[in-house]
Amino acid sequence: MEKISEGEPSKPEGATSGRARRLLLRRLIDFVALPATAVAPQDRSMGGDILLEMLFHASPDDRRFCAERLQVNKEAPRRLMRYLAMSDLEVARPILEVNEGFDAADLATIADETSLDHRLLIAQRKRIDPCVAEALCQREEPAVLKALLQNRGAEISERGMDLLVQHSRTVEGLTTLLIKRLELIPSQAMAMFWWADGATRRTILQRQAADRLELVDLCSDVFAVAAQENWSDPVARKTLQLIERRQRNRAAIEKSPYDSLEHAVEVAAEKGLTPELAQEIGFLAGVKPVTIAKILSDAGGEGLAVLCKATGLKRPYLARLWHALRRPLKLDDGKLHPQFAYLSETYELLAVAKAQTTLRYWNWSLSSSYSPRTSPAAEDATESPNETRFSTSRRTAQLVFGA
Hints:
Layout: H1 13-16, H2 18-32, H3 41-55, H4 60-69, H5 78-85, H6 89-98, H7 104-113, H8 116-123, H9 130-136, H10 142-150, H11 158-167, H12 174-178, H13 186-192, H14 198-207, H15 213-218, H16 220-228, H17 234-243, H18 250-255, H19 261-271, H20 275-285, H21 289-297, H22 302-311, H23 315-324, H24 338-349, H25 352-368, H26 385-390, H27 392-401
Helix pairs in contact: 2-3, 4-6, 6-8, 7-8, 7-9, 8-10, 9-11, 11-13, 13-27, 17-25, 19-20, 19-23, 20-21, 22-23, 22-24, 22-25, 25-27
């Protein structure tokens, strides 16, 4: 081998070293690509460092050749592979599509520091760990989010699903993909209900609501204890309100100017629904003002079906409440208006127990944090930082109200 003289002045690079550099690059790539049985890990690591240094000065074609050569190599040094994966898309593509040598931290870092196209390739990988999925959920990139949700090999964490539900407010078509994911939990589904399309709403009502029968049986003796204490504990009272069988507020009926919930709805249908009457209907139905306001102002109307079924209002009262909102019941030819027909069908499909659970979940989660705070310093004195951070009701309110 010819000896390289340290004192010899350097020659113009393009004149003599072009072929030598290309050969050396190919040899280093071949070396790094050797199977684990053919080269020691220390030698491979050193070879990878040298190759990485050369790739800094290589042409796009040479980088692409290297990436294609190492596409399925799981033993290649990860520092080298991260560089290729974060290079231009044509270089990164073969690495990001199939290479299994990356760990979750590598892919999360690549997702954070590259382009939308790189993230789309990651979202389409055969397997995606929860922390990688969460990194992909940080940005509102519809193509990436949809590819992730359609990927059956992706495992999405609860935090990742929270982010996806939040994005679904503005990204069209995301709710229909989210409802198919097994990771979706009731609090997320109930929050997403308010901006989902009709078919997705119906799926949420049928699939995500529980009948809570076992929970009622398990806690049946606690109601008597709470009554003996005159319902003085606000935390116990709020929790038992979510669990109990009865929906209507018996105490409100005694104070109301109306004989019953049915009477209030009849007056609303006859005279129109004023804010005061709407609030009274909410009190009689056992829900708070923010909950009844959300239900009555919702354009879809499925919330009305839930309200009527949960409170035992018969089907004619659904029509009266719809009329009270000055929404059309029939077309000019006498047939039911399509929207009301769909609403009536939803009412018939709902089970009473599940409708009650849904209504109480809304009442519990929406009203609890109707005025979301922005920092722990602004929280109530009785609320701990952990409660603020992990509360299901607060998280749902943040999803619904965008705070």
